[in-house]
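Expect chain and fold; see below:
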Amino acid sequence: MIHSWIGDAVAFVTAMARTHPYWAFPIAFAIAFTESFVGLSFLMPGFLLLVSLGGVIGASHASLFPAWAGAVMGAIMGD
């Protein structure tokens, strides 16, 4: 059950980032925030989602800075 949920989450993040490359900032923010937040870090496969988001950004030649800034701000806010 959890394994299929992780696969669905990765597929959703990948599809959303491909369709809307300017949403990289809020997507990265949400992933990093839930990964850094105390109660949610057990439920969220943040590393896998951030790696898949990075792969989509690299393949689509979108700017890396918005996703990086979103991840940094999400991690700071989650801690």
